[in-house]
Amino acid sequence: MQNNKRLFLIVLDSVGIGEMPDAAAFGDAGSNTVRAAVQAGAKLPSLKKLGLFNIDGMDSWTQGEEQPIGAYGRMTEASQGKDTTIGHWEIAGAISPKPLPTYPDGFPPEIIQRFEQLTGRKVLCNKPYSGTQLLLDYGREHVETGALLVYTSADSVFQVAAHEEVVPVEQLYDYCRMAREMLTGDAAVGRVIARPFVGDYPGYVRTANRRDFSLLPPRPTMLNQLTEAGYECIGIGKIYDIFAGSGITQKIKTGSNADGIRRTMELLENDFDGLCFVNLVDFDMVYGHRNNAPGYAKALMEFDTALEEMMEMMDGDDLLLITADHGCDPSTPSTDHSREYTPLLAWSRKIKPGANLGTRKTFADIGATVLDFFGLENNTEGESFLAEIYQP
Fold first, then answer.
1. Coil, strand or helix: which one is 349?
2. Please, what are the domains in the chain?
3. Which of 26, 41, 250, 275 could potentially form a cystine with 339 if both were Cys, beta carbons 3.0 to 4.6 Å apart?
């Protein structure tokens, strides 16, 4: 293998580690996603060994590793929000001081009417809704009438669900592109999401053909800097969609956490020069939003088991960073994201073991560190911690 520089940045989607100081303003006082998973039975020896339970604030409810082998810290979200889009943008170096628009009462009539005109189809629901409950309550009417299921959540999303036999997947994608072009200015939601499903009532099942149509980040990110410098930026999972493709040189779609882990391991076996940016979405989509704490615990344990093998596969100069984009505590009454600190775990064969990075001011410190690792100028809104995690 050549001596290329490789950095693996893995986002455990929604794996927050405790409420931020302003959590109550977001309706999330008391949230702690990792604690909920541990209380539901999660045993995480690999993450613990890296220093997960040594992070600031963890000692209030659990015991850390005596001699962590990784560097560890706690990330504070400086952006005004708790959604996937701005969380990832901030990780890549771009802070969003203004929250993206949300629609707790559904979208206004003028937006729905315009969407109906563009698609030639009527709209059903138009409320914040659980995606699985939506199919039970409106799925049969959708199949009978061909009307589109439009719904939202506490996040900045315009979601469109349709049965694949009623609206072919590519047509649903076209409808979502229309919505993306329509939702601009004050109505510029972070994501338009296509939500195809199949089956017969009451056994409708969402498929892996989900697709997100995101806004472009508000400014260039570390991804743009890397690609302009000639490095590869490989996006696994939702990464390409989250950044609307900006700065991504290769897109690898996945259907599950297991698939994302497998594709990451394939890249660990291959030579490339640049960043592998991974999103593992099942924690959030399959377990957090459905308040399934035992399922969340099982998914974390599956990642923890795979993590040990990933680390064994890493070369001497590789750097691994593990973090999250927000919380989604499965043990609280809410089924939405939670405003939480996120973990930062760093590991390399050259790491300074036990380095405590403290509580960082912004997720953007990760983007700054990625650029520092590749010897590039820091044009992000964060500060690099690279010098703190390597032996002098």
1. coil
2. 6-97+216-389 (3.40.720.10), 109-214 (3.30.70.1250)
3. 26
